[in-house]
Amino acid sequence: MGETVIETGMVLSATPVGEYDKRLVILTRERGRIAAFARGARRLNSPFMAGSRPFSFGSFELYEGRNSYTVSSMSISNYFTELSDDFMGALYGFYFLELADYYTRENVDGSRMLKLLYQSLRALLNCHIPDRLVKIIYELKTMSVNGEAPQVFSCTCCRGEEGPWKFSMARRGLLCEECAKKQKDGFRVSEAAVYTMQYIISSTVEKLYTFNVSDAVLRELDEMMELFCRVTIDKKMKSLEILKSMY
């Protein structure tokens, strides 16, 4: 017989099921990414209606059945409604949800990804940080949390720590000047961009969105992360495709 559990999490996606229900994908702190049915969530008077939407963050009481979860109650502390007033911000936000869905798994601790996702959505609401920089930070830190970040602390060949540097997609990281001569691919990367990537990977989530960069470094990081994501992530993100068409 199933039991009732209480999970802290955020709704990543919501899909209509039947006439009145919804199937929610929730990133939880305790159990990673799970699917749960919200019965009657599409009824106008449903207590689940508001919280059964993407970005809803809070506490979810769930009945654990044999093959799925069912929402018993929910207490939402943040709906991120401000994103609905910012079209571009909402697109970035949906991309963040898609990336979280791609990387997380059921029954795998989701606390770090949930915290990163929450703080990244908050950063989108900060007018002092460009959305493109928030995107770069979120992408790189997500890869770091999941063990797929590029090697930016030393040369991927000789392990030397002295630049100038080139970045190799084939080596998934930095090459010093000497090693770059032996590698066919690679493009020049500035010390400022290398330092920024090092800071993102090594910093706690609380310190991620406390800096800014020049336009030149932002463009450099943007181009680099676009290429790196292309060779690392084997799925097309719908919201990212829309974002690219808006640039």
Account of the 3D structure:
With 247 residues, the chain is of the alpha+beta class. The chain folds into two domains: 4-79, OB fold (Dihydrolipoamide Acetyltransferase, E2P); 86-153 and 161-246, Recombination protein O, C-terminal domain (de novo design (two linked rop proteins), Up-down Bundle). It has seven helices and eight strands, in the order βββββαααββαβααα. The strands form two sheets. It has a five-stranded mixed β-barrel. A three-stranded antiparallel beta sheet has the order 7-6-8. The protein is elongated, with a radius of gyration of 20 Å. The chain starts with a strand and ends with a helix.
List the main descriptive attributes of the protein structure presented here:
single chain, 247 residues, alpha+beta, OB fold (Dihydrolipoamide Acetyltransferase, E2P), de novo design (two linked rop proteins), 2 domains, five-stranded mixed barrel, three-stranded antiparallel beta sheet, 7 helices, 36% helix, 23% strand, elongated
